[in-house]
Amino acid sequence: MDHPGVGYRMTSLNSLKDVQQRHIAGTCRQAEAASVPALAGIFHADHRELIAHQNQWPFRIVNYMDLIGESVGLTRHDRFKELKLMQAADAIMAETRDLAEAYGLDPDEVRGVIANDMLADQHLPIDRTRHPN
Q1: How far, in Å, CA of 91 to CA of 74, rounded?
Q2: What pLDDT sits at residue 46?
């Protein structure tokens, strides 16, 4: 893929929101056009952004370390990705209630972290029809 943004972190564009959004959307469109089976993020913050978009595209989104592991027969479940794809704080709370209780975490605080730090932490709208060109 020949994309002007390849080679730098998406998060390095945080101060240029419109450029950042066009870069993320353009990367996904080019991956779709190239019929790639997977789009791999190489930085944790970029992976957090990209995984939320997986259900909108015909390829899976993975961390590059998962690809390296798979190449040598190692796999791990991406629990964060599973939870983020739920896109509903109540569903995530229900799924993680036992863990929060085991650590004595305040449910209201947990819900706030889920809503603000997990679900609202998106640079590009999830719905691809709202992506810039």
Answers
A1: 29
A2: 85
Please identify every stretch of the chain with a pLDDT value under 70, giving residue numbers as ranges.
Answer: 1-15
**pTM of the predicted model as reported, rounded to 2 decimal places:** 0.79
Q: What DSSP string runs through 59-120?
A: SEEEEHHHHHHHHTT-----HHHHHHHH--HHHHHHHHHHHHHHTT--HHHHHHHIIIIIIS
As a residue count, the chain comes to 133
Cα gap 46→130, rounded to integer Å? 19
Number of Cβ within a 10 Å radius of residue 82: 12
Specify the pLDDT at position 133. 87
Please report the pLDDT score of residue 10 as a whole number.
Answer: 58
* Three-state secondary structure call for residue 124: coil
